[in-house]
Design brief:
Elements lengths: L1 E4 L12 E4 L1 E2 L14 E8 L8 E6 L6 H11 L3 H5 L2 E2 L10 E7 L2 E6 L12 H16 L6 E6 L3 H7 L4
Parallel strand pairs: 1-2, 8-9
Antiparallel strand pairs: 1-3, 2-7, 4-5, 4-6, 7-8
Amino acid sequence: ERDLKQSSANLETGGKEEIAINQPSASDNTAVSGEEGKSYNAYFSQGAEDCSRVYPLKRELKEGEEPISTALINLFFGPTAAEKEAGYNSFFSQETDYILHSVKVRQGVAYVDIKDIRNIIPNASSSCGSAQMLAQIRETLQQFPEINDFRVAIDGDPAPFYEWLQIG
């Protein structure tokens, strides 16, 4: 079990094979940070032909950064100005920066806890909008071999997120 705290908000997941992606504690002697020069992708949409089609945009991992939470942080910041000019888009933007409370990986499932963004991007609840948002999160997370699936919660509770996106 690795515990890499980023904030005090955590999802209740229990179980043994859990990795909490947050800031390393002083007592943690597990390697939790990436190596300088390694890269990862943040996935964004381009055009409007297929709502669930996303494309990888390469990001460099800086020394000391944890790859999974860093990838989510960059996803939630949205595409850069140059990427927007190249036609990439997302509901995520500077308005949704700093929304990540925590991410934990347990038995192949990433549990992502975010701040309430429903008022910031209300139109994400359309069928195309929810497909786009979920594809961007899914592909950004599943580039990491230890992640096969994911769940998202708003302030520790998954129900509001999935109700907002009109998913049972």
